[in-house]
Amino acid sequence: MQMRFDGLLGFPGGFVDRRYWSLEDGLNRVLGLGLGCVRLTEADYLCSHLTEGPHRVVAHFYARQLTLEELHTIEISAVHSRDHGLEVMGMVRVPLYTQKDRMGGLPNFLANSFVGTAKFQLLFALKILNMVPEEKLAEAVAATQKPKKSAIDQAAGAT
Known about the structure:
By secondary structure, the chain is an alpha+beta fold.
């Protein structure tokens, strides 16, 4: 995932004008600007989601399994892209584990702010690609929905 300029987490991508590009050609053009070395095809398509409102957007989500070497190459390319430091603050790896305290790792990550459908897309991909066992994924989501004590409440309880 990427940390965006506005502090929200999201996936690389952009808008595609279907009059000039297929979804995959447009996506690869945008990814080529930001990541350089990954190419997606129709076989990498996972889902689409329509965002209603004044600016209707259909977000198409693609995922591809990478080797560790390919991931390192993408992370290096991302730092040298033209958008790095402007639109994108950097790449972020999603922790696929939960620590013994039941909050560290994935639950804490899911407590971040995500742009648009990015959190839905992340959870969908983790489930459909069997990257996190379904019960562990449900526990991580549930942990983010519990009310957290504020720092003031925690400090008051410690005294």
